[in-house]
Amino acid sequence: MNSEELLVRLTAIRDRVTVAAEKSGRNGEEVTVIAVTKTHPATTVAHLYGTGVTDLGENRIQEASTKIDELGHDPWRWHLIGSLQSNKAAQAVRMFDVVHSVDTLKLARRLDRVLADDPERGPMRILLQVNVADEASKSGFDLRGPGDGERWERFLGVVREIAALPNLVPCGLMTVAPLVDDPEQVRPCFRALARIRDALREHVPDRDWRELSMGMSNDFEIAVEEGATLVRIGRAILGARS
Ligand SMILES: *Cc1c(COP(=O)(O)O)cnc(C)c1O
């Protein structure tokens, strides 16, 4: 796909984001489109340059590392959207601007520690991944919503510990909704994530929980209607993955 084709697709996506945002009384400019470039070679990703895309999403450290070497780190903002093993935390910190997939206290502590060893890097923005649909296969904190009994209390305890780590800037939540035929079916997941975010604003007010990373190619409009600020879109921009 060349730059012109990509621009056509991106324009259509931005229009759909705007319409979805307006449906719920929001402004489409509050929503950042992250182009998910996993599996696509750097030569393809390079065509995004000049299309207005500023944010790229990758889910594997090794693949992202190769691409960053080829494309350069700047002018992009790199988002890690796939799960991260603690032993790769140092690499992640060097490469990514935002990690969306923090899902244990152990990982958060590890990131905080490697950031402390690299004072020039500065604090790193993170999102906490929540498995709102409670799928056994998904990573993330298992939580259906605020008020989810003991799970909520446990989650809140962990969030408070993460919020106290000096080198991390927790700034919101992320979820991966189940794959369904009708995206309307995942609306409750997005709504639950927004409710958890609202509850964190109340219970952990010393951090800014503004970001909601939710919505992919097949369901981003529903996610935007429910408050997404970051949508992660792969196939609808770059086509099918090999
Ligand atoms: C691959 C991926 C996406 C993008 O999915 P598409 O259906 O191609 O838009 C979004 N989020 C995560 C976590 C992914 O792994």
UniProtKB/TrEMBL annotation:
- RNA-binding as UniProt keyword: no
Q: Which UniProt keywords apply?
A: Pyridoxal phosphate
Q: Does the keyword Cell inner membrane apply?
A: no
Q: Which domain of life is it from?
A: Bacteria
* InterPro entries the UniProt entry points to: Ala_racemase_N, PLP-binding_barrel, PyrdxlP_homeostasis
Where is each Alanine racemase N-terminal domain found?
8-241
Q: What is this protein called?
A: Pyridoxal phosphate homeostasis protein
Read off the lineage from the record: Bacteria, Bacillati, Actinomycetota, Actinomycetes, Streptosporangiales
